[in-house]
Records
---
Amino acid sequence: MSKPSEYEIEIQWYQGPKKVQMPEQFSKKSVLPLKVLCSSVVSQRRAKELDFTFINEITSNSDLPEFNGFNTMVARDQGQGLKPKTKAVYLPLIDMPPSDPDRMMTALTEAKRLTKERGQNKVVFTCDQQLYKIAVDIKWAYPEQFSDVTLRLGGMHMLMSFVGAIGTLMDGSGLCDVSCSTFAGVAKMLSGKKFPQNIRALRMVMEELLREIVNRADIKTIEDMLSYLDKVASKSKTSKLWVDCFVKAVFIIMLYVRAEQEGDWPLHLYAVQQMLPYFFASGHVNYARFGLYYLRSVQSLEGDELSRFMKGDHVLRHVPGIWNGIWSDMFIETTFMRYGHGPGRIIGITLKRETLKTWALSLHICSRLEQDTKDLASNEQVSKQTQHKEETTWRKNADRADRESIQKLDLCIKPLDPSSHPSSIVNIVSGQLADKTVNVHEAVKIGTQQMKDFEKGWPKSFNCTISKRVTTIKDSKKHIKIGNKKVYDTTVIYSRVIGLQASSRDIDIKNVLSHELAPVPTSMFHDSGEMRLCKSKSDLKNRLAIESSLRCASTNVKATVLDGSAVLWVIHWPAKGTVLDFVQNFKNYLEKRLQNVDVYLVFDRYRDYSTKTLTR
């Protein structure tokens, strides 16, 4: 029997309270140093001008690469120097639940020991939101022991949550329906999943929304465009929703991505500050609470730590290059985590605890060996990234095709044309009107005020409940009023019927269901009015088919009608034949039936705007 594996790291036991209150010294708001403020102004100006240039050119030149490719091209034309590759050293895993305070205490203590051995006075510790909360509690419980530890909130996961916040605020506005015409898995995208495809999808939709605006003669700068958008937003609730909760939010995403790709620390602080009201407004309370604390904590950096961050040392790079900085949590996801979860790894191999422990405690060594082997095989030590994949021909063709597909926005109510909008917020695809209680168009204003109120009560209010004050279209979608009648959401009807059946009340279900409550026949159409697609016609045909004897069949058959499209699927395709052989089989199939009666071959024809257009 093999000897059980032992931990290589001495476990540190957390002795603090289960729920830690924010200490007074951590609730104070710091003023940014003058050099950071000045750099922030310059960075914001430059970033916004570049983003406007990109939007202006991408809407007029279909051969231009997308956002990352465009900025890589700009950096290359400007002669920017290559930034060095980040060297990653992997450490043994701690075989304990990630959310265990003892595990986090051990990780923080080990990080302090390693940095001290290498002559580094400060520890920069990055983790996602769930672990960030535990790390913050430990730092508050032991403020003197971990006074030299700077906690950073994982940037990639924060961006994913921000996309989810946009999806929450825009739910029911028509954004999902518009995106579904081009992209797959839109529901997951708008929940924050499928990163970075969701960023690309949102940016492309915004490009098409702004196509007509940026081509106006009076729009020459970013200030002109923002001024025009604010003017449009002041005339319509629908326009205000799309401007504040979508267009400006996507611009914040572009700033946030640029800050990391270029290693611009002041721009990172500015982008995070702009993101926070959306977290409060959308009910993403964890990132609202700890995102604000993260911002205030890193704004207080000073000395050598701030100098290193101002030089861009807060970002990581896989290879030397330009426009290729990434978040540290994204770096670990694409290296160490990928090695453990890729094909042929531990998943699906064994569930034996000792085997898993051996694998886990040796993963850091195996990952390092695998990376070194790949470096030697591909000569990656001298490789560099001076061109982005979005600059390649195949990628530009794919981006162009997606943009052309999104241009179907012309068939919808234009969200940035207030002259065509009713007084209430309207879904630009279905035309449904939101209830008067919906205030999502004021989401940014409400979120900003909520953030100020929350911070004003620190430290006592830090652990208090953050309520959602914004009512979205989805929140009020239980029914809509048409004339004097209320038309209810079909999901609500279903849940209420289930509730009636489960209750002991004496109710005539037949009488209840005799009243029409849905705006469309729900068996045939979705709530938006789109027809439900039949995906199992063959199964329906088999269920309806009735077997009968040939003797019972009528002999007085004058004609046979064949579905041409169905016949094409029935004809045998020769395994080693050609198209000509298939055509000959088709002719033989028809000639065999023409020997007895006349044959009428019918092919489907879909007229424009028919109910079956969606099945084409």
---
Amino acid sequence: MHGLSFHKRKQSHLKSIIIGCIVLIALWIGGIIWIGGRDVARVAHIFSTLSSSLESIKSDVEHFRYSRIQDSLAISRQALAELKLQISSAPTFTVSFSPFQAYQKETLTLISLVDLFVSVGYDLSKITIPLETILLVQEGDSHIKELSEQDKKRILDILTSGLPSITGSRASLDLLLQRLEKISDTSLPSQAVPLKQALYNHAQRVRDILDAAVPYLSVAPALLGHDREMTYLLLFQNNAEVRATGGFIGSYGILTLRNGEIKSFFTDNIYNFDDNAKHLRIPPPKPLRTYGGIRAWYLRDSNWSPDFPTAARQALWFYAREGGTKKIDAVLTLTPDVISSLMRIVGPVSVEDLNFDPDQLRDQLEYQVEKGYERRGIARSERKDVIRLIADELIRRIAKLSIVEWEGIFGVMRARLAEKTLMAYTRDSDLFQFLKDHGWSGEVLQKSSDYLMVVDSNIISLKTDAVMDKKISYTIKENDDGVLKAKVLLTYTNNGTFSWTSTTYKDYVRILIPQGSSHISSPIPLEISQEHGKMVLGAFIEIEPQKTGTLSIEYQLPKHVEEDVKKGLYTLFVQKQSGVIGQEISVVAHFVRPIASYSPLIGSTSKSELGSVEFESLLQTDKEYSITFK
């Protein structure tokens, strides 16, 4: 009986111990759930705060409220510090049961990337806020106030001193985006996924802005005459009368800048300048003399070379030889297409009761300088002063644009530099190297692959290029022995009539092909020479109004191109002639070996079959075609 009583008491103690343990475990689990739930709610709130801060920064940038950005950055930095504390410093027993435990590593990585983005924001705000203070009429207004010369100097000072920070920020954003792409959504708590996406979008947007801006910011101070005068020789090329680097130089100008301020600017009829040098009698290039009857060479014909740096140096030589007195630092050349593009942003221009529309500018200008000036009672020597008047009005209008509208100006500059209707040359070796690196120098490029460049030069044919349709057809064919035969077919259609603007098209065409090409044949005589590391095939053609003419040339490509094909790759680089707009190009390739891939796939119509591929497009910029073999 006593033993039974002892046994019951023992069972009772055991039950009490078990119940006590269960209660303690329940309390422990309950505490964890309460603490974990509290932490989860707090962390989720912080994630939401960070996303809101990023949106605020984006909104402030878009609405030019730069002074508010640092407030949003401060909120972000405070939230980040609390988030790190919540995730990395929570008690081990809590974190181990927290829903964030499985995501802790990638969440901390995301936090570090947000922190990096915030640091970039701080660095950039140190530049943008002072600029905003100088530039804008008031905060939140995108319009630029009238700037004094001192204001412009301060802007250039800020850009110069801030460039290392800007380029460093761009590098940081590249690193941020690369690391962010490696974080999958499944490796993050659901509350963090919107933050990751917002961070990616905002970082990419800022990086893209910096990518577009840095090339200009790198050279803008020097080009705008930061702390020194920068003087440009301006060459206005009319591509309705095509010449090697864009068009006949009908007008020229001198522009001097200091700290972004125009110190002097004038334009003049090129003949007024050349007439002072008639005594020089410098022999012109042979085709100008032979086919155009031109007996002396002047600045107006100086752009004979298709290599713009060479043509620019030739222009500088003529400027000095013909009596130019200004010390020139750089040469800037442009066609009417550049002016038209700017007018599409600022609107039509009216000067001296003359109205100029961007879509009709070339024709309107041509009429005024050839016919209209007489009716307006203007001397022939002053008939091209209207170009200066238009330029003055454009400069005045552009200065009043908002920052948003300036994005359009930069877009125009990039597009026109790419198509080479706008080009620059500078004596400064560092600046010139920058132009080369960005493909803005207009030089004949050196390529180890197959290469083609067609260069037309209108010789005494009025403005007939304005009514010409031109097409380049290039065919390459590989025979069974691996020999590569090329054929260039140029088609010219003269849509004009005999008038004061158009006539029979007389063109000295040069076709630049790889050095070492051989077995050249053509139905008409060719003038063969070597220039700029290329073999140059020259010919003179004439196309009467309402007629179509062709020029066909065949040749064998050099051995090094054949060797590339045997190794599995064929590349053709087609360089666009400066200033020419709307030219069609067709490339057809036939190989004995099957094709594995080809490019470009975008921007042209292409089709392939077995060992053949065909491309058709407009030649708006330089093009590179690539084919790989199986």
